[in-house]
From TrEMBL:
GO terms for cellular component: ribosome. It comes from Spectribacter hydrogenoxidans. Keywords: Ribonucleoprotein, Ribosomal protein, RNA-binding, rRNA-binding. InterPro entries: Nucleotide-bd_a/b_plait_sf, Ribosomal_uL23-like, Ribosomal_uL23/eL15/eS24_sf. This is Large ribosomal subunit protein uL23. One of the early assembly proteins it binds 23S rRNA. One of the proteins that surrounds the polypeptide exit tunnel on the outside of the ribosome. Forms the main docking site for trigger factor binding to the ribosome. Part of the 50S ribosomal subunit. Contacts protein L29, and trigger factor when it is bound to the ribosome.
Length: 99
């Protein structure tokens, strides 16, 4: 996997109350990933980008919600979420920077 594909696969960390609980309780990190990304691509991208060891990856597709904007119905985009389980003793810090 080339460096460009790594940055396409991992879009952003998903920060929410649930993801914070998962990080503390199960040593998992949640990412927003590309819709066409596979579990193996996500695993290798996280391992190469953050220099950590990944135990497993669980993915789910988040459906786009139907909302109204100025009285007109519209739809938010669908996206993919990945729960990345890190190996025991491994930690991921977003503030320290990527090498």
């Amino acid at each position: 996997m080339n460096q460009e594909r790594i940055y396409e696969v991992l879009r952003a960390p998903h920060v929410s109350e649930k993801s914070s609980v998962q990080a503390d309780a199960h040593n998992q990190v949640v990412f927003q990933v590309a819709v066409d990304a596979t579990k193996t691509e996500i695993k290798t991208a996280v391992e190469r980008l953050f220099k950590v060891q990944v135990e497993g990856v669980t993915t789910l597709n988040v459906k786009g919600k139907t909302k109204r904007f100025r009285g007109q119905p519209g739809k938010r985009a669908a996206w993919k979420k990945a729960y990345v389980s890190l190996a025991a003793g491994q930690e991921l810090d977003f503030l320290s920077g990527v090498e």
